[in-house]
Amino acid sequence: MSEYEELAKYEEMEHQVTLTEKELLEDGFGDTPFYHCIITEIQGQNSSEDPKVVGFAMYYFTYDPWVGKQLYLEEFYVMDEYRGLGIGSGILRHLSNLAMKTRCTGMMFVVAENNEPSVQFYKRRGAEDLSQEEGWRLFRFDKDSLVKMAAPSEE
Amino acid sequence: MDFSIREANLDDCKDIARMIMELAEYVKLAEHVKVTQKDLEQDGFSNNPFFHGIIAEVPEQHKTKEGHTKIGYALYFYAYSSWSGRAIYMEDLYVMPEFRGKGVGKALISKVAQLGLAAGCHQLNFTVLDWNKPSMDFYLSQGCFNITATMGYHCMRCEGEALKHLAQL
């Protein structure tokens, strides 16, 4: 969980993380996984030390009815002290490979516009900003609104 | 007006493909559509579906002049938020023009909300084009909020040559 807390802190939104470790376990490793995860580990100085997790990515498969299967990158993080070593590129390479092997036509994700380092990281690698280029806006209904919408009509 | 909402099956793919094209034309991006009826059948109705569908149907007496009784649809799949957990993503929501304003869109999105809640989802996400005011107004009236505006989130994609390059193939 600490990696999530670190990422949330990075995006200055830690108060918005409500997901628990128990839910993560059930949702990713139960009968119907909602997501998949890859991790980057480095071996410690001594061979007796456990490898240390220094980066991870969370992804799942989505569908664009115009062009087909997509690999959706939900979360992608490398610990501060391990950046600039090619770990991030390695994770992206692994995921892009996986996307192609599973016949996805694209890899999609969301970036906060004020996150300059990430925006540049992705644009350098050929990512298109669909919000800017085509005008797509991401909308959300939270739990309370969902419950209201799901209720039978009064008409 | 009488209409019914139900889960889509394999036989609906012809009408889903037709309405996907109508929706793409409505948002002026028809040239982007590459998926065929056969792709939909394979990708949505095999052992490992990548999406699910809901169809809005009218009785025979209300069919269109071309003979269509399937007059609206929604496509959705399950997603995941690393902060809030299970989510449902509504990829498409469409009602044929002559059947709008009669509660069909509301009924379709209500069904998606029901299915999402039944699966333990905490949020419903989707995208809208910034110039599509009728759709934006409809969604905002149902109580959603614009994450791109409030949190600055932009939707990004890596495809084609950029994807190949990333994979270093």
UniProtKB/TrEMBL annotation, chain A:
Gene3D superfamilies: 3.40.630.30. It comes from the Eukaryota. Keywords: Acyltransferase, Cytoplasm, Transferase. This is Diamine acetyltransferase 1. Pathway: Amine and polyamine degradation; putrescine degradation; N-acetylputrescine from putrescine: step 1/1. GO terms for molecular function: diamine N-acetyltransferase activity; spermidine binding. Its main location: cytoplasm. Belongs to the acetyltransferase family. Residues 8-144 form the N-acetyltransferase domain. The lineage of its organism: Eukaryota, Metazoa, Chordata, Craniata, Vertebrata. One of its GO terms (biological process) is spermidine acetylation. GO terms for cellular component: cytoplasm. Its EC number is 2.3.1.57.
Automatic annotation (TrEMBL), chain B:
The keyword Acyltransferase applies. One of its GO terms (molecular function) is N-acetyltransferase activity. SUPFAM superfamilies: Acyl-CoA N-acyltransferases (Nat). GO terms for biological process: polyamine metabolic process. Residues 24-169 form the N-acetyltransferase domain. CDD domains: NAT_SF (cd04301). This is N-acetyltransferase domain-containing protein.
